[in-house]
Specification:
Length: 256
């Protein structure tokens, strides 16, 4: 089937199967959702059209709603994405992923109390590592460092190398008002880059920039009289976050 090929990363074959299924039945929801997932990276607008077709065929489909929410998010349509992410939370098949996406969008709005409300309601998302980390972010932002640390440490018991949870523990110990802890030394440059990207995607630009600046490779090397050195992608991230601006993001000089 198309989904079997998709899971094996045989994307061309998967697309053939999905389109063949739709030739036979234009309202075949799994095929519409499959095409949406195939296009999320390469063409979010096409992904949104496919997901919407699936949702038109089955208005309560969480899988179609979730695919549409992700496609809309990638087009910068946060408000529409939020509505369809909530739709996904009502389907048991996508309830956890839907809550995680709702929390992400709320974090981007700095709606800390709504994140906490969304992720502390009873349900399977309470034990999901992504949801735990996002809930911990919200707890940190409202000054509940102990609650944040407890959640992050729960994730670390399951995955001791969870970079996001490791940094949340460091943040909780440093204090949320001026959190500038050193990035845990066990993190590789690749894990650090992923952490910066994760914070950026959640709209936490100050934390993203702090992570980049506090890495051993960059710390102390970005002054006006110091040559920039270290991982080039981290340097690019610092430059991009400087250009993005926003509260709490003072300019830092990058020397060639």
């Amino acid at each position: 089937t198309g989904w079997q090929e998709f899971l094996l990363a045989k994307f061309d074959e998967a697309e053939k199967h999905f389109r063949k299924a739709l030739d036979k039945d234009p309202k075949h929801v799994p095929a519409h959702v499959g095409l949406a997932h195939l296009n999320l990276d390469r063409d979010p607008a096409a992904a949104a059209r496919a997901a919407r077709a699936g949702l038109d065929a089955a208005p309560r489909s969480g899988r179609a709603g979730y695919a549409l929410a992700v496609a809309e998010l990638r087009q910068g349509k946060d408000a529409q994405s939020f509505d369809h992410a909530w739709l996904a939370t009502r389907d048991p098949a996508t309830a956890v992923a839907g809550r995680a996406l709702v929390a992400k969008l709320l974090l981007r709005r700095s709606s800390w109390s709504h994140v906490i409300q969304t992720l502390t309601e009873p349900g399977p998302w309470r034990t999901d590592p992504v949801c735990r980390n996002r809930l911990a972010c919200a707890f940190l932002r409202v000054g509940q460092a102990n609650a944040a640390r407890e959640l992050a440490e729960q994730n670390l018991r399951d995955d001791p190398l969870d970079a996001f949870a490791l940094h949340l523990v460091a943040l909780s110990r440093a204090g949320a008002k001026d959190p500038r802890p050193t990035v845990p030394s066990m993190l590789s440059p690749e894990a650090t880059l992923e952490l910066v990207a994760d914070y950026f995607a959640l709209g936490q630009l100050d934390w993203a920039r702090d992570v980049a600046l506090q890495t051993p490779e960059l710390r102390g090397s970005l002054g006006p009289h110091s040559p920039a050195r270290g991982h080039p992608l981290l340097l690019y991230w610092v430059a991009y976050l400087n250009a993005s601006g926003g509260p709490g993001l003072p300019s830092v000089g990058l020397q060639p």
